[in-house]
Amino acid sequence: MALADNHIHFLFGVDDGAKDEDEMHAILDAAYQAGTRVLCCTPHFHPGYFGDNYDKVNAAFKRLSSYVQKTYPDMALYLGNELRYEPECVTWLRQGVCRTVNGTRYVLVDFSEAAPEKVIGNGLHALLNAGYIPILAHVERYRSLHGRIPAIQAFWHDGVVLQADPQSLFRGFGLLVQRQCRKLLSLGLIDLFSSDAHNCTSRPPEMLTCFNYISKKYGADYAATLCCNNAIRLLHGEAVRKDFS
Prior knowledge:
By secondary structure, the chain is α/β, with parallel strands linked by helices. Helix content is 44%, strand content 15%. The protein is built from ten helices and nine strands. It has helices spanning 21-33, 47-50, 54-71, 89-95, 117-129, 149-157, 166-169, 175-186, 208-218, 220-235, and strands at residues 3-8, 36-41, 44-45, 76-79, 82-84, 106-110, 133-136, 161-164, 192-193. Strand 7 (133-136), helix 6 (149-157) and strand 8 form a beta-alpha-beta unit. It is globular, with a radius of gyration of 17 Å.
């Protein structure tokens, strides 16, 4: 099964992911060896935390693209950002300093893990009202949403795309996060899994174990949708499949 990963931090020198070009290549190598064939680079975007990294991202992506063409010609590579939400983020998107996912209306967005439910909800609706489709990064990790299934269902029904991290299925972020992730998965409230990789050790680009877990528990069709097909759909601006609830 060829897997797709739409949330990964391995462009070097632009955020808290890969520190140099060698580590960038190592993360890519690990992703390829684990079956990933579609990758969307999503470096963090927030001027206050990471400065103006737009040109650095372009330069790193160019170098990565050259490596992929020479080493893995069957790998498809795309570019976006992971936006840390702030009230002015719609302006950043409209100005083009923050990238949407492959130039589509989809925007990968995250919040502080300690953000209140109201802050998350208001932020998601601000993006929706501005004409964007938010992909809520690692939905299972926000503490204010733990056990708040109705709130998450409301986001989902409003058109927010819900992304989860594979590590969360296996207690990589603790027991409470694991319980939340597995509960959302069982309810059909996760639209896609993406690695959210930052390195090859503590935050690896591992999608295959996630695919295998979902396939065994819920079937290969569900696993393919969450670990490949929905990611590809949104890269092309298409609607994701949301009919497993």
